[in-house]
Amino acid sequence: MELMLEGLKLKKVDIVEKIEDISQNALNRTERLKMSHNFRLKEGYKIPDKVLLIDDIMTTGSSLYGVYKLFKDIVTKIEVLSLAYVKK
Fold first, then answer.
1. What is the distance between the alpha carbons of residues 75 and 86, in angstroms, rounded to a whole number?
2. Are strands 16-18 and 39-41 parallel, antiparallel or unpaired?
3. pLDDT at 58
4. Tens digit of pLDDT for each residue in 32-69?
């Protein structure tokens, strides 16, 4: 991830945290969709005007949607990127 951000000349700012650290791989679709409420902004960080949300795995989209909801009313621009890496 860091190499990709460096190549794109983007700065990583880790300002979101999970409320509960629950692994989603054992959850069914309905349970995963409920996980969109499991995020909060960390205290003490300045929120940038533009945000790029990056998710390494996207199954239901609940993580991206949950983080999007945190930012939607406080930033001017949000972009979403979901990445998958396949090792041969």
1. 33
2. antiparallel
3. 64
4. 777 777 888 999 888 888 888 877 666 777 888 888 88
DSSP string, 35-88: GGGSEEEPTT-PPPSEEEEEES--SSSHHHHHHHHHHTTT-SEEEEEE------
* Radius of gyration for the alpha carbons in the chain, expressed in angstroms and rounded: 14
How far apart are alpha carbons 32 and 24 in whole angstroms?
6
DSSP state of 18: E
CB 66 within 8 A of CB 36: yes
Q: Can you name the residues that pair with 40 across neighbouring β-strands?
A: 17
- pLDDT band at residue 87 using 50, 70 and 90 as cut-offs: confident
Decide: 31 and 23 in contact? Cβ < 8 Å: no
Could you give the angle at the alpha carbon of 33 between the alpha carbons of 86 and 25, nearest 5°?
40
